[in-house]
Amino acid sequence: MPPTILIVEDTQSLAMMYQSYLLPTGVNTLVANDGATALDIINKIKPDLIVLDVMLPDMNGLDILAQLEPDNFPQVVVLTGHATKEMAIQAIKLGASDFLEKPVEAERFRITINNTLKIKNLKQTVTKYKNIYENGRYFDLIGSSKQMQSVYQVISSAAASKATVFITGESGTGKELCARAVHQASNRADKPFVALNCAAIPKDLIESEIFGHLKGAFTGAIANRLGAAGQADGGTLFLDELCEMDINLQSKLLRFIQTGTYQQVGSEKQVKVDVRFVCATNRNPLAEVEAGRFREDLYYRLHVIPIELPPLRERGRDIIEIAQALFIKIAKEEQHPYKGITDDVKHFLAQYDWPGNVRQLENVIRNILVLNPQEWIDVSMLPALPQSPQKESGNEGLVKEQHTSLPVQEFEELPQVESEVKALWIAEKEYIERVIKICATNIPKAAALLDVSPSTLYRKIKGWEENL
């Protein structure tokens, strides 16, 4: 849609001349001959750019500039035949983008307008993505780590294109949120975003779910159904867990992607739609191709812009940022008087491996808030958590090295006389501290080896500190 430019000029012949200057650019132009009319148009139409004469019959043009809303400020080019240095400085301070002195030539006028519109587009882009650098949020994605910044940059670069985005990552890393961000960052943001989980639909129904069906096409088809492809027309179709799709249906999907047309189940008519594809899987797609479960031609057709979402355990401080956002969100849903989390809780959240990634973190936080009505969350409220198999396998060598680097010392034998008896809490403390040392201060791992919850160890450590 071409931008709209409001020309505020009380001399009708000049206003018409400025309109003629802009005819080759294809923009829409409106004219106001006085300040009151200009303000009315600005409030109703909200033009992209205003060419503003200073000397108007009912007010000074700079007074109009001063009344523009800061949150929805259009680009303004001030135009006057009575220019002074002070007036130019005042106009710029009030938010004007440029200042032209009458009379102005057609080419200079057009260049100024074009440059100002480019500045507007640039400002919109910066505003749209500034949260990436300010607070680590990108639409519904949270995290300021380098890994996530790279993801945001790929999404931003790919947003304007229609190229297919292929998202991979472990279960629970936020692949659907990533797909929604691709949609929201694109020029299709005001069109439908339709998500379809290929693993959650029976194989004999998935074709109907994607392409739709006609009434009577099969048993149970009691009415016409549009299908996800038709619903997403003009927008984005997100196919989650794509590698779960039956290989016989993959050929139809390939044809749909190549031609943009499909047939509803029970119909011979070709339907054409404009759809942007985003796909995701928690499997290795190339391994699925090699195993014969995923078509190689479909893989290369879809694998245009790959995005790999990192697991939560590799995202550092993102864990705390995500947790705090989830605590606020879930506390509001559960009407919980949440105020914050202690440093011990932050330490635990950052140290745990989160094998279920963000999905697991969200479930743990909901568990904590539902079972504990206190305003401040401490480690005693944390539930017992399973040890991550990824961490065990990934750090096997590291753990082994830490074991062998410790001096080999056997624990003292059981006491034989009264003088050798220690207080139970001291003996327990020494044993637990040795296990924690063996685990390289990884409290969740030590807790798993001791068959207790991490919160139990944190409580004991806190108690020891109070006793000393």
TrEMBL record:
Residues 141-370 form the Sigma-54 factor interaction domain. This is Two component signal response regulator LuxO. Residues 4-117 form the Response regulatory domain. Pfam families: AAA_lid_14, HTH_8, Response_reg, Sigma54_activat. InterPro entries: AAA+_ATPase, AAA_lid_NorR, CheY-like_superfamily, Homeodomain-like_sf, HTH_Fis, P-loop_NTPase, Sig_transdc_resp-reg_receiver, Sigma_54_int. PROSITE patterns: RESPONSE_REGULATORY, SIGMA54_INTERACT_2, SIGMA54_INTERACT_3, SIGMA54_INTERACT_4. The modification 4-aspartylphosphate is found at residue 53. Keywords: ATP-binding, DNA-binding, Nucleotide-binding, Phosphoprotein, Transcription, Transcription regulation. The keyword ATP-binding applies.
